[in-house]
Amino acid sequence: MSSDEEYCPEIPVKLTGLAIKYFLLAVGEGNPYWFYKCFKKVKPSTSYNNVRRYFYFLKKLGLIEPVRKEPSKHGMPKTYYRIVPGMEDDPRWFAPQAELYPETRLGAKRYVPKYGRYKGEEKVE
After folding, report:
1. pLDDT (mean) for 53-59
2. Among 10, 28, 47, 120, which residue is least crowded by beta carbons within 10 Å?
3. Which region, left, alpha or beta, applies to residue 62 given φ > 0 means left and ψ of -120 to 50 means alpha?
4. What domain count does the chain have?
């Protein structure tokens, strides 16, 4: 980890999408692992895979963009991201997964019409 990565800005929220936004606004350019190390202090239950997934969602939505890659001692290069200019106030930061996959907003309700309230229960008309 380089010396500039030792700095962890204050992250005032536990929502991963918004937390990434605050992190990137504070540091300018950052990578998923650096964010994960900082976010772990705010939300200890988060996993690195979850963080990587959110970076993927944000990139796919066009809210962040890769700016550079650096070699890593673990084989895969580190990719650094920044917020796309003009996207700082986009409402999709709040729930990027739901923006990409709207059916996730329904939660468990999306299964009720097909299977009933619980698995094995008959469908109620």
Report:
1. 96
2. 120
3. left
4. 1
